[in-house]
Amino acid sequence: MTHTTARGGREPLTRRGMLREGACGFGMLALAGLLGNDRLRAGSVALDDADPLAVREPHFAPKAKRVIFLFMHGGPSSVDTFEYKPYLEKNHGNPLPIERPLAFDDEEPGPLMKPLWQFRPGGESGIPVSDLFPHVRECADELCLIHSMVGEGVDHGAALLQTFTGTSTFTRPSLGSWVVYGLGTENSNLPGYVTIKPALSHGGAKNWSSAFLPGSFQGTPIGHAGLQVADVRGEPIEYLANQHLSGERQRWELDMLRNVNRRHAEARRHDPRLEARIQSFELAFRMQMQAPEAFEVEKESEATKRLYGLDDPVTADFGWQCLLARRLCERDVRFVQCTHSYKWDQHSDLYNRHNANAAEVDRPIAGLLKDLRSRGLLEDTLVIWAGEFGRTPVSQGGDGRDHNPYGYTIWMAGAGVKRGYRYGATDEIGYHAAVNRMHIHDFHATVLHLLGLDHENLTYRFSGRDFRLTDVAGLVHRDILA
Amino acid sequence: MRFTATSEPVRTGALWAVALAACLPAAAAATEGLEHFEKRVRPLLAAQCQACHNPQLQSGGIDLASGEGFAKARDEAALISLEDPASSRLLAIVGYTARVKMPPGGKLSEEDLGVLGRWVREGAPWPGAELRAAVLADSEQGAFTEEQLSYWAFQPVSQPRPPAVSNLAWPRNAIDRFILAKLEQQGLEPAPPVSRLTWLRRAHFDLTGLPPSPDEALAFSADRSPGAWERAVDRLLASPRYGERWGRHWLDVARYADSTGNDEDHRYPYAWKYRDYVIEAFNSDLPYDRFVTEQIAGDLLSTEPDPRGVIATGFLALGPKAIAQQDKTRMLYDVYDEQIEVVSKAMLGLTVACARCHDHKFDPILTKDYYSLAGIFASTRSFRDAEAHVSRMLLKPLVPQEQYERYQAEQMAIKNRRIERDNVGDIEIEQLVEAEASRVAEYMLAARRAYEDGEDEASVAGAEDLDAGRLAKWVAYLRPVQPKRAQLADWHSAGPDQRAVAAAAYQQRFEGTLKEWHHTIRRWRKDTIELIRNGTMPPRPKPRFQAGRDRFFFDVYAAKDGPLLSFRGEERDRALQPQTLAAVRRLGEELEKLERSAIPEPPMANAVEDGEPVEQHVFVRGDYSAKGEPAPKVFPAILAGFDQQPVRTGSGRLELARWIASPSNPLTARVMANRIWQKQFGQGIVRTPSNFGKLGAPPTHPELLDWLAADFVEQGWSVKAMHRRILLSSTYRSSSATSAEAAEADPENLWLSRFHRRRLDVEELRDGMLAVDGSIEFAMGGTLQSGFGTDRENSNDRLSIDPATTPRRLVYIPLRRANLPTLLNLFDFGDAVTSLGKRPVTNVAPQALFMMNSEFVARRASNLAQLLMASVPGQDAERARRAHLAVLTREPSGAEVDTALSYLAQLMERFPEASERDAWASYCRILLASNEFLYID
Asked: Inter-chain contact A465–B22, Cβ cutoff 8 Å?
């Protein structure tokens, strides 16, 4: 195994183009193993530098080895789900008592609107969770709620981009890309960063892109939000399977290719890129043999499938995503994102639609938490649940709520965070974060910290400047650390 | 908390930059930096330092209890390095690595060190201390150091003479003498020349992005007459394929794409016209100075309408934009910033945009320079309606204004006529709805009997004299479902005895809302009819019922899918009185006639135009609400000096264009000469093609660069003339074979002791394969995807077109920034968001998977096999030869032919299901996937 320290301060991958062009698969570990001899290691390509995905030692001992990010696209309402605001009950129908900050909709805001669901205490911690999430409420003792999230985007695109890349103004690498850049990946047969059925809108691929980081750090999409699971299952990763040739026949062809390439390389000395590309075919062949197994969700036991709600058409889609996420985590994929497609944007009809949305994800999420716990995976897996923002405490259009990035709730669970804990708070109205504000930069800094990465030292030099996920900001919120 | 800088205007200077980290959205960062200071740093200093370092004790002459004291200590005791904050003395002192170690009682905790470290790295902001940080050298001239003033890239282009060399046999032209002189200095030999076919393959890919056809290869191989090489170069430069290849390179530099990217990814419907303009500019060898001028100010060059000049400004118009950003001022200044960045990087090789928040940290670009340029773009319009909820981009007609106005007037007339037609029917339908509304309770009760009491729906309808179809809809709507619907809660909770009361209540409320709503509609209609009659302004759109006002009403009357109480389509026609229906149809026919005879939409372009001139101010730390000193429209002082006359009329774009495109601008010709060199040799003389500043790479051959730049200008800024010189040089004819000595002495090939073997880029790889199998189509221009706006959330239409689905060249595939084609992501295309001077090159296994498993490659291999089998029937050896010529542009050796033939035979023996064509296809795929195809020697 190749262990080097996490990256920082310099441009580690560009020890000139020669090395950058070295062969890398989804990861290099398998390559070293695959070769079964010292040819490549001792030969022309310096593995440490050539392989962007080699496992790297973090900056300090990590609490989490990997992340599952459950993304609720559209912006679930915090005051209707995880942060109870009695003030809204008492003042239902009254005008907003503060000046309204920049909103998405220019129209006059409606009056304050009480939570449309009953909050009840969950678990031993007694954390109040609304009736939208009865199953997640059973797991309340796993949750570390953060009630004081702050972002800057009042429109979806800006908010998604900031949630995933730190900025909506520029094109920057995504959180998952930074994580894989910092830590590498431990399973070279699978991508280090997988995003299941991601959104194509509101930044689209920018939300999982590696931007100026080398392309190997880009998230690998499994289908996209518009597709059904059935559309995705067949070929989860593009080009992973050959539709025409048997494995044996393809191997036969690849052997000939290797011979042709070897002869070519022998006539061209001192060019490690040629050998590196030869190896990339060997790695690819092995990957296509082994990767598909990770996607065989249907092989899980009936009990497990039920736990995730695969038995019910309402929960089957997100259940499949969550169960696949667990399988990928078991196989050491570093960063997995599940996306509940763009459904949470309730400018109107909040009651009916939030009900329908929560019904789709509540059971799968609780199933995931329970399953991870029982398998011991929650010890070193960090689960994050978040939308791109919350929603306003005032109503919009009679029975909806507008976007609110000024104070909203997300939660984490698992590796490294306190259990059954509530952190921060919005003001009594539920509009602005008031206690322990956690800006998205802080959130990123804290997530990186949990993974053993110092956000100030995880840098990449591009265009004459050292870039960070957190730009020049970011504060690790230690109070939530277990 | 808002940070207010100073009461005096902040003066800027290069030495005493108010050093935040680098280019960033400053307002947020500054606020956060100060917040960090107040929250974490100030308490820390109070607890750990101020017992001694206070105004009274001033231990060691240092006071850390006030902003003033700190400013003094920072500057006089050099506690903080503003140029390189991370190396600040303060950090060494508290880190216990300096001679002085503080605090004396013991080292701070790691956490506290982190807090201080972050603060210092952010420039150690402290309210009350920033004024001094911004106090500058006395005169503006003094803003630059001697080193900055004499920096190589800012000096005028010299006219160096080609140096003397000892090997007189090798050089073919001046370029070779510059290269050879350096080689001789380094004690290196020039590389031997390559074979004719290797050179031809190199030249074909370099100039057209395509391999030579077997016939072209054989012809060149056989042509031993004088001038053969020159003719080959001229043939390639005259090929329309040349512009497609080199235009694409410029499109990288211009961060070209067909959508806004960012938040909403709206299409730029006419972006392709700019792309076609660029291709045409290269094909026609448009002088580069003219090319630059047109892209910045093509719309201002002539008083006559000039479609081409307007289209050229697409360069400025087609950047990424956050059009749904609700802080519109910020959005606009982000757009100006993006325009400054692309102009300065693409044309000047400078990273001017770094100076948005503070003076450039490494180059002598002042914040004031930045805002002087911002003023030019702030006086330029990229939107027709920036203030709209989702800002609307500027679309410019390419016809005279009167003609466009005629078109608009006609379109308005059509729209109005449509409203008139709809009105005729609507008036009657509204009355019908009002009559039906009185039966809402009846339908509800009947529906409940069907879904709850189990009565037969049809017989209930018959018994109650209700419309059966309508009743079915009511049943479907009212039947309880999970999750429950709030608007039906009262209905569902009403017990059997309360049904009638509940139904009556629903009906009453429904009728109330209906009355109000129809009142609103009728008022609108009255106003609209009047407006249409006056013809003074376009009518407001018909109001739409906002669902949240009354969701039951909305569901029943207005919902888009299956309302219960409305008349649409045929139902509507049946409901209308015959004479009304006739009137509607007559008006419809007139409308159709009008539409048929209407002037078609005039040609349009995504472009910019001059807007209201803006008196720009510096924005302190990039925050638009913190206005600093005025920044009149001048050009960066380090290049243009301090005694410039500011532009006073218009936007200043034309002046900017002329200043950049001037032979006396030291950067413009150098930067472009270097781009051409880089693309032909795989690496530039300056290896950072878009950054000629201090953090860029210094030129390996500065004299050659100047010679090329001077020659470029002298040849009338002809790009093709430069290609000709380069391609006919001995340097370009060098072999890529690397000797052990050269690899040792010149590992990075800085001195061009050999040719840089390079990988095909994604266009060459894809188009090359399509060319080899004969299926490429060389149609030029136009768009493969027309349309406006964006597409349904999460639909496949949000994706860019899959390049596998068209035989056109890749340059013609529209690029949706938010979702580029997988192929492009896989093979290092870049992101089409920022100016890209040189693409990265990666080698990853998923690329191999594409070669192994994609349908695209399978089809290429199969087609090529078919081609070989058809063209040389029955002669396997000749087929193998043709295959090598087509894919690798060379004759195979006898051994290679033997190997190929035995491979085919063995494959068919081992896998009896494989046909002869399958076997050939397999061999062709091997050639296409081979390193020899992918790498150009």
From this structure: yes
pLDDT digits (tens, 9 = 90+) for A77-121: 999 999 999 999 999 999 999 888 888 877 778 899 999 999 999
Handedness of CA B454, B457, B458, B462 (dihedral sign): positive
Cα Rg of chain A (Å, integer):
23
Answer whether B549 sits within 8 Å of A397, measured CB to CB.
yes
| pLDDT higher than 70, residue A229 | yes
Interface with B, mutate which of A19, A210, A438, A472 (most B CBs under 10 A) = A472
Question: A471 and B21: CB-CB below 8 Å?
Answer: yes
Q: Are B60 and B53 in contact (CB under 8 A)?
A: yes
Chain A residue whose CA is closest to B937: A268
B825 closest CB neighbour out of A218, A241, A277: A218
Residue B484: closest C-alpha in chain A: A352
CA–CA separation, B492 and B486 (whole Å): 10
Nearest to B660 by CA among B670, B669, B668: B668
- With residues binned 3-state (H G I as helix, E B as strand, rest as coil), the percentages for chain A, rounded to 5, are 35, 20, 45
With CA atoms as reference, report the closest residue to A52 among A190, A211, A209, A183.
A183
User: CA-to-CA distance for B660 and B652, rounded, in angstroms?
Assistant: 12
Round to whole Å and give the CA distance between B452 and B937.
81
**B59: exposed, middle or buried (Cβ count in 10 Å: 0-12, 13-18, 19+):** middle
Q: Return the SS3 of A4.
A: strand
Q: How far is A327 from chain B (nearest CA, A)?
A: 21
Backbone angles phi, psi at B673, to 5 degrees: -60, -40
A20/B840 CB distance under 8 A: yes
At A119, give phi and psi (nearest 5°): -95, 140
Closest Cα in chain A to B791? A201
**Subunit contact B738:A349, Cβ cutoff 8 A:** no
Query: What is the SS3 assignment for B811?
Result: helix
DSSP string, A209-269: --TTS-GGGS-EEES-TTS-HHHHHS-SSTT-S-SSS-HHHHHHHHHHHHHHHHHHHHTS-
pTM to 2 decimal places:
0.81
Q: Say what the ipTM of the complex is.
A: 0.79
- SS3 at position B47: helix
Instruction: Calculate ∠ Cα B482-B485-B489, nearest 5°.
Output: 110
Beta strands per DSSP E along A94-189: 119-122, 127-130, 143-150
Going by DSSP bridges, is the β-strand pair A335-340/A66-72 parallel, antiparallel, or unpaired? parallel
Cβ proximity of B667 and B345 under 8 Å? no
Judged by CB atoms closer than 8 Å, whether chains meet at A352 and B485 is answered as yes
CA separation for the pair B854, B846 (Å, rounded): 11
What are the Cα distances from residue B113, in Å, to A7, A351, A380, A457, B82? Answer: 21, 49, 28, 14, 19
Other C-beta atoms closer than 10 Å to the C-beta of A127 total 23
Dihedral (Cα; B925, B928, B930, B936), 10-degree rounding: 170
Q: Select from A206, A215, A278 the Cβ nearest to the Cβ of B818.
A: A206
Are B793 and A156 in contact (CB < 8 Å)?
Answer: no
Q: At what angle do helices B110-121 and B26-36 cross, to 10 degrees?
A: 140
Closest Cβ opposite residue A204 in set B546, B798, B840: B798
Residue-wise pLDDT tens digits, B188-222: 999 999 999 999 999 999 999 999 999 999 999 99
> Sign of dihedral through CA atoms B104, B106, B110, B115?
negative
Q: Which residues have a Cβ under 8 Å from the Cβ of A396 and sit 6 or more positions away?
A: A105, A107, A109, A110, A347, A348, A402, B548
Q: What b/e sequence results for A281-302 when a residue is b if at least 16 CB atoms lie within 10 Å of its CB, and e otherwise?
A: bbbbbbbbeebeebbebeebee
DSSP state, B487?
G
Taking the alpha carbons of B322, B277, B298, B680 in that order, is the dihedral positive or negative?
positive
**Buried b or exposed e, range A402-416, using 16+ CB within 10 angstroms:** bbbbbbbbbbbbbbb
